[in-house]
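Q: I'm writing up a methods section and want to include an example of the input and output format. Could you take the sequence below and give the corresponding predicted structure tokens, formatted cleanly so I can copy it straight into the document?
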Amino acid sequence: MNEPEFGKIILASASPRRSELLGRANVPFEVEVSRAQEDNDPDADPREAVLANARLKAEEVARRFPGRLVLGADTVVAFGGKVFGKPKDIADAKRMLGILNGNTHSVFTGVAAVCAKPDGAAEIEADVEESKVTFKKLSPEGIDEYLSKVNTLDKAGSYAAQEFGELIIERIDGAFDNVMGLPCALAQKKLDTLGKRVQDAH
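A: Here is the clean output for your methods example:
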């Protein structure tokens, strides 16, 4: 962000990975976790789902902090017409990794920059980034080994590319930070565009 008038942006996410990525991108920010209820329909269109959830999260926080730039994000894994969110338990994580095993899936992250006015109306800039991830062909023991090393219960698709990813991932096509949960170049672009639009309106 190049607009100091807004001060720090607000990241509407409890994800430590998104905080880490924003910090690495030298974006001044503070965290305010969104209270929005996400829609996690496994049969939803993944692009529409992450876009809608990112907007929901950002809008809820933006309404509490009118005039501030708020960034929301949502990430899902999609394969075979199904959306893979966070697993319910270890058995669910094992099931997901078994399905993704040896295949190429998509990781979609929706990014939404929102600035709410005092009257509740909001200006929004939002988009979706997609990366392709190809898994190695893993044995059941290989899956168990990965699950023993990584807490996958808070991760879409039951894995984290940045944590022992070499055990399960053969190749990533697209932005690595998108697979981690926040495509920073896209987020920066949406924040800059929204910031300029809000400033020009004043």
